[in-house]
Write a structure and sequence with these properties.
seven-stranded mixed β-sheet; Rossmann fold; alpha/beta; about 40% helix
């Protein structure tokens, strides 16, 4: 990524003005983790595809990076929700939602979603951390929760063999098993063709956008429309 791109990413970092508070009040690993996550994920390529209004829910939202960014961009007509199984991450996300724009809730998204007529669901690097059977279960639930013209935005890792794929697997191991910064059932990415086939089988109309340029990860964005 060129220097100009890095500077722009830093300018848009949702917690840029609160880094001192984070450094003083939270474990030392939190701020580096937020930076690595922010600079390694193409949030700026996901955001343009998020509807400007309606109910928008980030499943597995973590510390809320995506939603905090959206809160500064989307008009009041958009209702923002964030669910994650990690209560500590949800507590962090709530603590920095000073405008009370976002509804964060600690919830196991595999147990129940209890959502109806949602405009947009976001799954950002969540699916490949689940077993294949749980992936299918969650995607079916997403389809059922969406409104008729709703969209599921998936940011995933392409399982096609490459150095970027192997690097993503190494990072996933350290994040989950060494530093214990996230939960998951392992590392189970699918190839673009395999995941597209599964989404279409469920009933989605799928557009696939490569998002790996400038990143050392095989990022792919799947725009999954229910229609």
């Amino acid at each position: 990524m060129p220097l100009a791109g890095i500077c722009e990413k830093f300018r848009l970092f949702p917690f840029r003005s609160r880094m001192g508070t984070i450094a003083r009040g939270y474990p030392a690993k939190i701020l580096p983790h937020l930076f690595v996550r922010w600079f390694s994920c193409p949030f700026e390529l996901i955001e343009p595809h998020v509807p400007r209004q309606g109910v928008i829910c980030d499943l597995g939202c973590g510390h809320g990076l995506m939603l905090h960014r959206l809160a500064s961009l989307l008009p009041p007509e958009a209702t923002l929700l964030g669910f994650d199984i990690d209560k500590e991450k949800i507590g962090f996300a709530r603590a920095f939602d000073h405008d009370h724009r976002i509804w964060f809730e600690a919830r196991d998204i595999l147990a129940a979603l209890d959502l109806r007529d949602v405009t947009c669901l976001i799954l950002n690097d969540v699916l490949h951390m689940l077993s294949y059977s749980h992936q299918e279960l969650l995607l079916q639930r997403c389809f059922d929760c969406l409104a008729k013209e709703g969209v599921l935005i998936l940011k995933e890792i392409n399982a096609q063999a490459s150095w970027k794929y192997w690097w993503a697997g190494i990072q996933a191991y350290f994040v989950k098993d060494v530093f214990r910064l996230t939960r998951g059932e392992g590392f189970h990415p699918r190839s673009v063709g395999c995941l597209t086939g599964l989404l279409e089988k469920i009933g989605f109309k799928v557009d696939v956008l490569p998002a790996h340029q400038g990143y050392p990860y095989p990022h792919m964005i799947f725009l999954c429309h229910k229609g």
